[in-house]
Design a protein that fits this description.
The chain is built from one helix and nine strands; from the N terminus they run E-E-H-E-E-E-E-E-E-E. By secondary structure, it is mostly beta strands. The chain has one domain. The chain is globular, with a radius of gyration of 15 Å.
Amino acid sequence: MTVTAYWFGKSLEQAFSNNLDVSGCTLKMALISSCYVPAQSHDYWDDVSACEISGSGYSASGAELGAASVVYASATGIIEITAGSAVWTDATITARYGIIYIPTGSPANSPLLGYQDFGEDKSSAAGTFSVTPSASGWFRITATLP
């Protein structure tokens, strides 16, 4: 499924405070159940990990998306953050959200970037569960041009 991500407000605050550099970082996506209630105040993996799903074909803490690429198009004023898709094969799982974060090895220090709301619980039964970024990447910011 292709989805558009929502930013966590705290990740933008950290980026604009020069405390978070996403470019080149390895990103991960973890799948979260419907027990989770998105909140802009969440800033680290330990804020959401209690609702992480489990199931066959799914490893705790999610799947690597690869290195993040941050691209600014001066003609349009758009910044896009891209990385690969999240894929779980031969998986029997159910999830409502995908959380994108930067793994540091410590849940209390692994910054959240944003999340995807699948709109409802999505499931796979001994099949492939994949989440693909939109054509414009996982995240997009549009700067206002004069």
